[in-house]
Amino acid sequence: MGILNKLFGNGISETLQAEIEQQLKKTIDPTSEKDLIELKSVSDMQFKKGLLELTLKMPYPCKSLWPTIEQNAIHNLKQIAEIESVKINWETQIVAHDAQKGTSPLQNIKNIIAVASGKGGVGKSTTSVNLALALQQEGARVGILDADIYGPSIPTMLNIKEKPQSENGKTMKPLEAYGLQVMSIGALIEEDSPMIWRGPIVTQTLTQLLKETDWNDLDYLIIDLPPGTGDVQLTLAQQIPVTGAVIVTTPQQVSLIDAKKGLKMFEKVEIPILGIIENMSTHICTNCGHEEAVFGEHGGQKLAETYNVDFLGSLPLDKRIREEADIGKPTVTAEPSSSIAQKYRNMAHQIGAKIGVTKRNYGNLFPEIVIQNT
Predict the structure, then answer these.
(1) How many whole angstroms separate alpha carbon 41 and alpha carbon 166?
(2) Which of 84, 252, 284, 290 is the most exposed place for a label (fewest CB within 10 A)?
(3) Would you say 112 and 221 are in contact if contact means Cβ atoms under 8 Å apart?
(4) pLDDT, tens digit, for every residue of 108-149?
């Protein structure tokens, strides 16, 4: 019997089942490079009077890829003589995946993605916001936590002016912007108030912002980390279940040196590296169109090759990215059809697909057992 046998009712021949399975194996998801059977995406199937109707549940957000996958699937399935037409219903089904040892899943958050850089000023926060928006546009429920306590910039980038509210005095409702759930220390203090805090207070604040925010059923929480490999990163590694980390760097050597430190830190605490993003890769002159590698060439790609991790892509040094972040309307939202927005979406696809094919975490599916003295 084929893998799909349980999806069919009586009266469907084993031969037809085998043919359908074979054609679905020929239909490849372009991001994960796995076929629909490997992805276990076929959740329902009916065949009646020449019409094959199936439901595909993709394990990562990729709405913009559905038409391409559907086109290929229909073409392949219609090679079977008995099938006259095909109807495909689409769903996104994101589940919780494994995190580092010694941590427990958090309620209402399936997967946590840390976005880090060893060095400041490389565009990490801008990248975090645009990746979060790209994942949201592709069909996921996404939140973003601004963990840069000393220099919170997410409220500015998302044009958030209001303060978080609490209904019970114990937890805060996340703020909302462009469909994202958001929390930042920057939304709790005045814009010009300096955070003159020592490490223990900073890490305690991070933990409170994460665990005392009433997140609403998130598929992904993006944590925008501060630069470096200090107290915040250590707290993250020891106490917070992180599905994977993304490293942001520029091609410049001084940036790469620090990016290596961040990468090695995550390796030591057994948090998977989802990939490296090279920001400010090249600059294109707005007057003459000349393209120049201002900060060096291919540094991020070479770093990825050296440490055998995925290179998620490069982003240009473009004033539009800066201008749009400054006015609180990030590129993925401001110019969704632009080439830059597409780059962010491609990166989001790769991150989502890499998580989607890893081992599932069942911790949230089992009740907590409490032993009491009676």
Answers:
(1) 39
(2) 290
(3) yes
(4) 999 999 998 877 778 899 999 999 999 999 999 999 999 887
Give the pTM: 0.90
pLDDT tens digits, residue range 200-230?
777 788 888 899 999 999 999 999 988 776 7
Q: CA-based angle 244:247:251, to the nearest 5?
A: 160
Using only C-alpha atoms, the chain has a radius of gyration, in whole angstroms, of 23
Distance CA 314, CA 278 (A): 5
Rounded Cα–Cα distance for residues 61 and 113 (Å): 14
Torsion sign across C-alpha atoms 126, 132, 136, 137: positive
* Model pLDDT for residues 263-312, shown as the tens digit of each residue: 888 888 889 999 999 998 877 777 777 777 767 677 889 999 999 999 99
- In this structure, what token pair is assigned to residue 170? 């114990």
pLDDT score recorded for residue 370: 47
Distance CA 268, CA 245 (A): 13
Residues in the chain: 374
Ordered alpha helix ranges (H), the chain: 14-25, 66-77, 124-137, 154-157, 199-211, 231-239, 253-268, 299-306, 319-326, 331-334, 339-356
Residue where the block lists tokens 């009077």: 49
Burial of 351 (0-12, 13-18, 19+ CB in 10 A): buried
What distance in Å separates the CA atoms of residue 136 and residue 150, rounded to the nearest whole number? 27
* Of 358, 368, 351, 352, residue with least CA distance to 104: 368
Return d(Cα 302, Cα 276) in angstroms, integer: 10
pLDDT band at 261 (very low <50, low <70, confident <90, very high): confident
Inter-CA distances, 55 with 22, 94, 202, 226, Å: 17, 15, 47, 42
Contact 275, 245 (CB under 8 A): no
Q: Are the C-beta atoms of residues 57 and 41 closer than 8 Å to each other?
A: yes
Cα dihedral sign, 162-224-63-355: negative
Contacts of 62 (CB under 8 A, 6+ apart): 29, 31, 92, 138, 139, 349, 352, 353
Q: How far apart are CA 273 and CA 163, in angstroms?
A: 34
